[in-house]
């Protein structure tokens, strides 16, 4: 009888400690409670359906007792927020930030340590984080593990890539949760450095679909002074746990109170458009820390870049990758004064904002694979690149130059030279920099996704802001909405980009239909679309590589792959060859007042309409995977009573991503808000539409 009474009291205590937080729409609910042992747990429902079963929370600390059990709740605070803010650049001019919040203040009975758990519940999902208040019992501490669980309700379909500490440049796998297995992957994929964290470790954001047609996404937001979170998957019972990327000696994070963890996020909806259009990740980041943002502007650019990928020219001066420079290669150096002027002329002629030049600075002869600490100095050009002459020429043509800083993974070297590098940029009028982190990280033993490198990737735009420089990072950890806080962090790669199509197995047609549901949730991506000469055999008859889309889909990507920094990545002569299709790239905007997600299904298709900022001009992009698709879209987003001219760039009747990728048609029609358009997308194809008010 005594044991029964004790059990009842414990269960009653658990019930009393349980609290529910609902989204403003009341469709999403989070139940937070303490177990009988004082462990922290939560669960999530959507429209009364369980989507996350009871899952434990907690933090393991190095050399001291973990913060995962023996807690009591000392205080609970609730509030509702409904506000809006204006991004400097974005998919819409105003973003609503509406949620209900609960903060649970906890104390661990045995240690007296304090911990807060904060939940924010939006209409599209749930976010929570750990907060460590300033306290006598916990000052400096080391996180050895994070015990956050995401226990799912079924064997969902999942779009996943392996939990690689150094790279996200993978094609996605589409399987059941039970079929996740990194050991079964073909890793001959063109990625230079791989550090996979385990057989069943996957990266977030993790996009899923349940058997009853619910869409779920697990991710994180505001990763600051903390490692990236991957996920350990139990393929037998569909339970997942956070997997923090370690540093060189195996620790996860060095912290001092007061401090907070990143937000852990769970998006859920029965409409895929709610996931892909969500601004929850941005909302969870701090507001802009840059007061004067007038210098942060969108840029459309071309560059001395693709010609190296397709083998026409080289990054290094000798063309041999020979550090002695005693031999001379057969291919010319790309970054010459003469060649750069050719790109500047092309940019000026067609109204582009900027020109990127890679391979301009000394060091490319032995830049990769040697763990050499001092490779580049970021200030000294090759003798055939006259930086002053090029700068003057660009200014005379009203074209901005974009700097390239490849670090070859030597972050210590880059940080030592950062101010001198930015001074060179200011001297010669470069408003933006593309950074690169190819190779193993120096300091040796660190990973791209560890705490030290996350701090570096966040530090660079902060430092750049002092020089009024915009940053586009490649090979960085994937963004988690930090572009709200540092809006000069204008774009990042951090996924498998278009470049892989030039020299590897490439990206399958499905790739671009998944990225907006994963990588792009964290911020704009420099995917470098716009390749018109699809097959690499155009440059070398022996080459089998190709872009796995039609030409029309390359145009549509300017809409579906959001970025205020967009490259027309192909060669000038290829655009002149297909000048009618090139017109769309010249016309398409980069900054938007509105974005309408018309159709969405991860791994299948996506259709988006966007209204250019401050205008009545609309642009539509529709893409599909390897399957052809016929659909009809309504133009009811147009202003009623107005007439518009729609120019439609579509796949031709025999277009196919592999068999006939450059088959396209262009037609112009008059439309209104009552119009409906039939779109016929080829296999691996797309449609791009510009809609301007009729004159």
TrEMBL record:
Which keywords annotate this record?
Answer: Calcium, Hydrolase, Signal
What are the residue boundaries of the Glycosyl-hydrolase 97 N-terminal domain, all occurrences included?
21-287
What is annotated about its quaternary structure and interactions? Answer: Monomer.
Lineage here is: Bacteria, Pseudomonadati, Bacteroidota, Flavobacteriia, Flavobacteriales
Q: Which cofactor does it need?
A: Ca(2+)
Q: Which residues form the Glycosyl-hydrolase 97 C-terminal oligomerisation domain?
A: 591-691
Glycosyl-hydrolase 97 catalytic domain ranges (all copies): 305-495
List the protein's name.
Glycosyl hydrolase family 97
Q: Where is the signal peptide?
A: 1-18
What is the superkingdom listed in this entry's lineage? Bacteria
Show the GO MF annotations. Answer: carbohydrate binding; hydrolase activity
């Amino acid at each position: 009888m005594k044991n029964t009474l004790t059990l009842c009291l414990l269960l009653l205590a658990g019930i009393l400690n349980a609290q529910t937080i609902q989204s403003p729409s009341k469709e999403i609910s989070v139940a937070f409670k303490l177990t009988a042992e004082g462990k922290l747990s939560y669960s999530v429902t959507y429209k009364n359906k369980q989507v996350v079963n009871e899952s434990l929370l907690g933090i393991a600390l190095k050399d001291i007792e973990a913060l995962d059990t023996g807690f009591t709740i000392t205080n609970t605070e609730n509030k509702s927020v409904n506000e809006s803010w204006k991004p400097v650049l974005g998919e819409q001019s105003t973003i609503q930030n509406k949620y209900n919040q609960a903060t649970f203040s906890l104390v661990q009975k045995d240690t007296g340590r304090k911990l807060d758990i904060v939940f924010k519940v939006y209409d599209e999902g749930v976010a929570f984080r750990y907060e460590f208040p300033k306290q006598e019992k916990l000052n400096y501490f080391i996180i050895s593990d994070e015990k956050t669980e995401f226990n799912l309700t079924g064997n969902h379909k999942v779009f996943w890539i392996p939990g690689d500490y150094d790279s996200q440049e993978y094609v996605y796998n589409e399987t059941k949760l039970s079929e996740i297995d990194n050991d079964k992957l073909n890793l001959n994929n063109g990625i230079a450095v791989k550090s996979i964290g385990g057989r069943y470790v996957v990266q977030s954001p993790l996009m899923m679909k349940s058997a009853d047609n619910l869409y779920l996404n697990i991710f994180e937001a505001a990763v600051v002074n903390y490692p990236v979170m991957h996920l350990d998957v139990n393929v037998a019972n569909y339970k997942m746990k956070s997997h923090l990327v370690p540093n060189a000696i195996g620790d996860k994070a060095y912290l001092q109170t007061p401090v907070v963890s990143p937000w852990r996020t769970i998006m859920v909806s029965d409409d895929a458009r709610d996931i892909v259009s969500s601004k929850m990740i941005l909302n969870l980041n701090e507001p802009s820390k840059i007061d004067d943002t007038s210098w942060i502007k969108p840029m459309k650019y071309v560059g001395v870049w693709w010609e190296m990928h397709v083998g026409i020219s080289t990054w290094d001066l000798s063309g041999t990758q020979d550090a002695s420079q005693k031999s001379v290669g057969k291919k010319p150096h790309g970054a010459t004064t003469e060649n750069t002027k050719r790109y500047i002329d092309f940019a000026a002629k067609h109204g582009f904002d900027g020109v990127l030049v890679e391979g301009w600075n000394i060091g490319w002869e032995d830049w990769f694979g040697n763990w050499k600490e001092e490779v580049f100095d970021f200030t000294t050009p090759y003798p055939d690149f006259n930086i002053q002459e090029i700068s003057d020429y660009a200014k005379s043509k009203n074209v901005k130059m974009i700097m390239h800083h490849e670090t070859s993974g030597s972050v210590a070297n880059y940080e030592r030279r950062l101010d001198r590098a930015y001074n060179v940029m200011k001297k010669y009028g470069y408003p933006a920099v593309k950074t690169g982190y190819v190779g193993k990280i120096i300091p040796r033993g660190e990973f791209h996704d560890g705490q030290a490198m996350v701090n570096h990737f966040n530090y660079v735009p902060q430092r750049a802001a002092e020089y009024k420089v915009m940053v586009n990072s490649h090979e960085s950890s994937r963004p988690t909405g930090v572009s709200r806080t540092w809006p000069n962090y204008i774009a990042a790669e951090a996924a498998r980009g278009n470049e892989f199509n030039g020299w590897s197995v490439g990206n399958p047609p499905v790739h671009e239909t998944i990225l907006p549901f994963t990588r792009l949730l964290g911020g704009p991506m420099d995917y470098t679309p716009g390749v018109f000469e699809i097959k690499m055999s155009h440059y070398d008859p022996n080459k089998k590589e190709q872009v796995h889309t039609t030409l029309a889909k390359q145009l549509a990507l300017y809409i579906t792959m959001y970025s205020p920094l967009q490259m027309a990545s192909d060669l000038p002569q290829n655009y002149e060859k297909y000048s009618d299709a090139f017109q769309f790239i010249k016309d398409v905007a980069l900054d938007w007042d509105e974005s309408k997600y018309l159709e969405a299904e991860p791994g299948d298709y996506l259709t988006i309409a966007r209204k250019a900022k401050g205008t009545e001009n609309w642009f539509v992009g529709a893409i599909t995977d390897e399957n052809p698709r016929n659909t009809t879209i309504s133009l009811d987003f147009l202003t009623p009573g107005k007439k518009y001219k729609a120019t439609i760039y579509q796949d031709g009747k025999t277009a196919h991503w592999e068999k006939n990728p450059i088959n396209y048609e262009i037609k112009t029609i008059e439309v209104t808000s009552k119009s409906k358009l039939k779109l016929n997308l080829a296999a691996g194809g797309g449609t791009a539409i510009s809609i301007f008010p009729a004159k």
